[in-house]
Amino acid sequence: MLLDDFRSAAASLRTDGPGQIAAASSLDAWTEVRNALVGRTSGRLSDLMTALGTLPKEDRREAGQLANAVKQELEALLDARHTELSRGQQQGPAIDGTMPARATWQGSVHPVSLVIDEVVEIFRELGFTIALGPEAEHAWYNFGALNFPADHPAMDLHDTLYLNDDLVLRTHTSPVQVRTLQQYAPPIRILAPGNVYRRDFFDPSHAPMFSQIEGLVVDEGITFADLKATLTRFANRFFGETKTRFRPSYFPFTEPSAEMDVLCGVCKGSGCPVCKQSGWVEILGSGMVHPTVLENAGIDSEKYTGWAFGLGPARTAISRHAIPDIRILYDSDVRFLEQFAR
Ligand code: DAH
């Protein structure tokens, strides 16, 4: 090839190139144009470079500079076009910056479930296992086996939801004590969380369905000291360093019986609406298992003794989080529940 031919080939590439680059209307088309113009192994620039080697030696320097200049021009145009085309691709539908943001809610564990999980965890560390029983329960397990006298007011239609003459919706988790004692030999250490039902009015401190956590320990040589020590230890784990007090109480299935109060978590004992100005919040009923209950379940009450408790997770959640009305717990109001999201 002669230098003149080389010059005119370079000039025509210089005139054709920009038009072709501008006409590339998509990234695919751009790639095709780039390969045709400046592709490394084929394409018009690479043809020029090949031709360069056939020129007389003295012309090669000028021709080389010419080819380089064309290459740089075309590559600058290609880059610019590529930027335009890729920006166009990202645009998508127009965004209206004045639209209100869509609300998103973060899921959370219900405060009552949080209490149950934590209580279970603490007692699990103390060697308790979980036991469960039916919510539709025989009246005998719910009352008779637990030493309720035949005329006890709790058995009144007014208080208990009867399914038929024999079946009730259990009014407490205590029947799980009897079922466990029938099924397993001591030593026994169980925790029984579950739902219970009462025909109470739905007022600020009562709900017709709520949850309870039952605890039961039966072995040789178990005393009231075990009850007090274990429940006090639990309270200090659950509430952080706190004080407990045991008040004498009565339940048909325990003797002696006691209710346990903890220092009000909201006012730390100085008195507030949550603790009704007393400084204390009752969180559970407890006592030494009545020998009659052990015998009713087939356990030798001369050999074995035990203690039990029943705790109200809703009450406990209320005192822990200073919730003013128990019904909020059952409303499923997201504005309330999302405050417990972690
Ligand atoms: N079952 C009782 C209730 O529902 C709570 C209770 C009290 C359970 C004393 C116990 C206990 O195991 O020892 O009111």
Summarize the structure.
The chain has helices at 3-23, 27-38, 44-52, 60-90, 111-125, 139-142, 175-183, 224-239, 291-296, 313-321, 334-337, and strands at 129-130, 136-138, 167-169, 188-197, 209-219, 244-251, 254-263, 280-289, 305-311.
Layout of helices and strands:
Elements: H1 3-23, H2 27-38, H3 44-52, H4 60-90, H5 111-125, E1 129-130, E2 136-138, H6 139-142, E3 167-169, H7 175-183, E4 188-197, E5 209-219, H8 224-239, E6 244-251, E7 254-263, E8 280-289, H9 291-296, E9 305-311, H10 313-321, H11 334-337
Parallel strand pairs: 1-4
Antiparallel strand pairs: 2-3, 4-5, 5-9, 6-7, 7-8, 8-9
The chain binds 3,4-dihydroxyphenylalanine.
Residues 172, 174, 214, 251, 254, 285-287, 308-310 line the site of 3,4-dihydroxyphenylalanine.
Q: What would you note in describing this structure?
A:
The protein is of the alpha+beta class and 342 residues long. The protein has two domains: 3-91, no CATH class; 111-340, BirA Bifunctional Protein, domain 2, CATH 3.30.930.10. Helices cover 40% and strands 19% of the residues. The strands form two sheets. A seven-stranded mixed sheet has the order 1-4-5-9-8-7-6, sandwiched between helices. Strands 2-3 form a two-stranded antiparallel ribbon. The mean pLDDT is 89. It binds 3,4-dihydroxyphenylalanine. 3,4-dihydroxyphenylalanine binds next to strand 8 and strand 9.
